[in-house]
Amino acid sequence: MRYALTGALLLAFLFCLWLMRRGWRRRAERHADLPVLPVPPETTGDDVVPPLEGLYLGTTEAGAWLERVTAQGLGGRADASLRLVPEGLVVLREGEPDAFVPRADLLGAEVTDAQAGKWIGEGGVLLVTWRLGGIDVDSGFRAHDHSLHGVWASAVNALAPALPATPVARAEAAPVEAAPPAPTVAKPAPPAPAPPVVPPVARPAAPALLGRAVPPALLVLEDGRSFTGTAYGAVGETFGEAVFNTGMTGYQETLTDPSYHRQVVVQTAPHIGNTGVNAYDDESGRIWVAGYVVRDPARVASSWRAERGLDGELKRQGIVGIGGVDTRAVTRHLRDKGAMRCAVSSTGETADEVLAKVLASPSMAGADLAREVSTPQPYVVPANGERRFRVAALDLGMKRSIPAYLAYFGCEVHVLPATATADDILATDPDGVFLSNGPGDPAATQYAVEALRGVLGRRPVFGICLGHQLLGRALGLGTYKLTFGHRGVNQPVQDVETKRVAITSHNHGFAVALPDSPATAFGHVEVSHVDLNDGVVEGLRCRDVPAFSVQFHPEAAAGPHDSTGLFEAFTDLMATGVRL
Question: Which one of 412, 465, 506, 542 is the catalytic residue?
């Protein structure tokens, strides 16, 4: 028995060694194409901070503790000396050629308590994030004098182009793709159960992130209330409308939804970033939120689908955020006082100084934002399989999931800019017209209302979110701003005719006013859906022309999927063949 147990332990040990070697080999293969590290220039400017003498701990992929980068001699520990000069970072490692990180490739730095899967302990480690051959990496250094870590982190952040030393507004953040290309259409996910509802109870303030010497940050609201925390994502300042999202999942879809343009999103769910980010879940070609407020940012992404960490992605796209905030308290305040202008700042200014800038920032009421997020040029999304219908889709800030669902139901989708006219729409010879979601005040989007009036009664029409509000205005109904809006994935909506209740995804701060009379210039209209929380009009159905709309999101990629049948209802409407 003793020999059998010894043999089993030996086999287990050898198996673990084999797994480790396989992991090392795979990482080496993945990083084999990384370029050779540049050599330092012969002449440089004066040192920005005193040189750092200590230990080089290794390099990992940014945001991933265990994904070591071993190529180009980056894998092993070594005594090292660092110099930060105006041209970039000079790295001198014992036993390795001198290396240089140009200033353009520096992304920032922080002081943390672990690196490459190793707990460092008191004094922490200086973690420098930089770009090598198209990937972002983290390199760890532990100085003999630990007090220099914070000084160096601030100096690197000031020098790095991705983290400006001077305050910048969100609109001036690092350039990213403004309009999505034609999305790759995939079969929509099957219906999934709605996540549990978490009641908005107050909680004590969250502690600061352990061991991270990151800059302090402020969330300052228009009415003067402020909240303290630590910088999350890019360092700087940003302005927008403070809104809260109650979704327990889908933070990546929220961040990349164009409907959140010029809004600072407060996540009520406490843990954000746990599953990292990936290219598949993006709803557009960039992050659109103006700023991000979270309670407990995840320190490590833990998902087989994760391609990088959320914190690094926020930094890459210049999104200023704040962590360690009691987001429940913020949510209760916004629920009582209403959505309002705000700022997130990690520039070191006082709350009073930031408040003065908040009061000078633009309001969401009257804002025409659809044309800012729309595609600049038309494009076509082909149908999945045989084409049954051709749909002209007005892109007012359309999420990628919408044309994906339409394509799944056999629609060839011709996506048009928000400013397209009725003639532009009809020139595609569509079987139906779709109006998408989008940001801003529907009252300021009159050009889309006029285009819609030009096609009502001539083609079947389906609108979602902002498209629903524009249908209401085209019919002569009013719109108004909600106190704090609906944003989340747990809103109960009832079909007035069938009494069926669906749990739905919402993202809107404006709503359609209840009609005083069913009569409109286009015939009779009726309310088809209502929100059971507050009675808001959630759907319209025209009786005399083929048109209907909903305020909620049946295409919600993160769920729930109770209402995906509305896309099939649109195809049924197009099948009637109304073409005038």
Answer: 465
